[in-house]
Amino acid sequence: MEANIYDLKVPLNSRDLDYNLEKDRANLFFYGEVWRGRVRSNVEEHRTIDTIEAGGFLTDEFFNQAITSTCRLRISQITYPAKLRSLQKGLAMVHGVKRATVHLEFKEAKVLFDPNLTTETLILKAIADIGFEADLISVGDEAYEVHLKLDRASSGDMGAIKSSLEQAVGVTYVEMEVVERMVTVGYEPDRTGPRSILQFLEKYGARLYVPPKRRELEQHQEACAYRNLFLFSCLFSVPVVAFAMVLPMLPPYGDWLNFRVCKMLTIGMVLKWIFCTPVQFLAGGRGKDFFETSSMLISFILLGKYLEVMAKGKSSDALGKLAHLAPDTACLMNFDDNGSLLSEVEIDTQLIQRNDIIKIVPGAKVPVDGIVIGGESNVNESTITGEARSICKSTGDKVIGGTVNENGILFVKTTHVGTDTTLSRIVQLVESAQLSRAPAQKLADQISKFFVPVVVVAAFVTWLGWLICGEIGLYPKHWIPKGMDEFELALQFSISVLVIACPCALGLATPTAIMVASGKGASLGVLIKGASALQNAYKVKTVVFDKTGTLTVGRPEVVSVVLFSTFPMQEVCDAAIAIESNSDHPFAKPVVEHAKKMRRKFGARSECCKRVQNFEVFPGGGVGGKIDRKTVLVGNKRLMRVHNVDITPQVDRYTIENERLAQTCVLVAINGKIAGGFGVLDTPKPGTKAIISFLRSIGISTIMITGDNLATAFAVARGVGINKVFAEMDPIEKANQIKSLKTRGNIVAMVGDGVNDSHALAAADVGIAIGAGTNIAIEAADIVLMRSNLEDVVTAIDLSRQTVYRIWLNYIWALGYNIIGMPIAAGILYPFFGIRLPPWLAGACMAASSLSVVCSSLLLKCYRRPLNFQST
User: Fold this and answer.
1) Model pTM?
2) What's the pLDDT score for residue 202?
3) Which residue ranges form the domains of the chain, and what is each CATH number?
């Protein structure tokens, strides 16, 4: 554990409490039901913390991460890995910068910094001092904002509009473009929304305006620019090729090209000069002219760049597809104060606000996240989770924006809108993964660091070698093409070496593969948070599984209830209901529900409303508190032993029998005596045994780690084919066990879903969270499985392996062109076969190398889940 620990205890049901913690290191605002625990959330100062991890502490590590801000920058001149390295080193030296991620292909940088030590302006100035030009794209996290265009507003109205908007309820900021009459309004979704803001500006002709994403716009502009340049160069290069290579081969049609205009120039040379001048200014002298070399070299390079930009656009189009999953419109239902329906209005999806009631007809897409308050239907969630089977949704179930309603009508109350929807967060997650740098990129950086000087030396040696050999007569004169001399021949070989050895393809090898793989993973319901996680997963040799909710279905049922003392059943049930109602453990809800049924069975007419005092969570053991001055404990045998509660032979026999049947025994102790017990069964997920078997077949060992008792854990593990079990472990012990496995040289992946798993997920080399699990487990993980299906553990590892394989294949493509092409460009085949690689053809090969690398990465879009384990 860290040296400085801050013990936090917040009364249950406290709201909006401002705590000045020791040393005034942070002011944290808490909202909702919180309790003694460790805050595990990378949040900024003064932001709401809604995920509190039970049973831990506040540490220095949290405070060091808490006060941070983020900005994204556009950097134009970053074109080669060498420049990227110098920029990263420079950013790392800026005072206050905690982390900087620079993406070569997007030409973007994401900087995490301490706002108390530096600002965006100072960061921009530091980048300028390094020698780069940068523009600010955004500051902070994605905000709630709406973009509007005011058709009936004059320039004089804009000032008044801004003032009135800034005073409106829920508006956080207002940005305006007076000339274009456009306004961007930030807002708090709990107080207002885009529809209210639109109505506020209705008299000015306000309408929604969707600004194009900067990256997409710039990529489109870059592609158009290269396309236009290529077509422009072709307009002049094609005639040049005809004059230089086609017509001279077709006498007598090309004879006129040899007529001399003057002593030094022929008609053909003049025409080539005229047509080449718009492509590039070049002067000829005595000897052979190189007009066609210049124009064709430029044309091929432009063609290669255009195709490369188009291909790179396709490698990141997963984001565009994800963003367009949500429908354009939705059916809003308006009610009066009495709950009577007033109207149904079709509105733009961007105008949906929290707590709106939306009607979703069969075949329509769900616009935003929400809860079903009426109706029943099957919903296809394959676009978000990758789950092919439709899921039945009824009152109380959650629905996700972008999914498809298949057969019935659903009435949904919206809970998450704008950038807070699952779909938006997936897009942000994939974008963040694409911006991150994989460890494999370091290899390209190291190679390019030495590659450029080596190429320059090789080009110089090529020129010098051919020149010397020609001057001293080491090769016959007829090797020199007509119109050339020894110097010009040597120069062409040297230029060809420089052109073909351009390291552009090397820089594309890793980022393009990461971009495609992270997008493909998202479409399969496997969200990968960063390039490091994607690359590290292929090295995993040990997978550690949590039990409850991970290997098991996560819907436990009470299968038996037993009394062990003179306490009546109703009192035991009342104690269990009161205590477990405050617990978030997966077994708490079924115990409460079954205890309520037992109360009704024994004649209770009213609901249990016992008040709990001094409620406390014992991680890995259970919960406890005081009810009517009686001390009550609800949990496992370990909890009872810690609190010196006597375990009678009768209790011991009952627990052993439950454990033999893979059931967990939840004991209830009142005033130091065990009053009763609940036998809880949570069945393993279907297909788990086949998945464990498949992992073993590909050389990956599996382990179960759980807080449950040893006998139950072994029974469950035996049923799914796991031989090694660590049981009766609290969250800290789980994390320590993961660290212990790592010290033995294992690359460890941890798969879990609960609060108790977050320490272990963070400690593992690769943390894999089940998507249906708690927010805190998902925050701590590197990979999130949206389907909550263990098959996707195999998918994540296999996708990682395929991606790393593709990265190495890309390196082979990139270096292969250079290793094979450079000797040919240097003229190694010329003495034997008369094969020479002119500069324009070397340019075509260079462009082809970049294109082949990008196309190789695009093949990852054809990735399919492994099917082998399904028949195991």
Assistant:
1) 0.62
2) 85
3) 5-66 (no CATH), 69-137 (3.30.70.100), 145-211 (3.30.70.100), 219-315 (no CATH), 323-433 (2.70.150.10), 441-509+819-861 (no CATH), 526-551+684-786 (3.40.50.1000), 558-681 (3.40.1110.10)
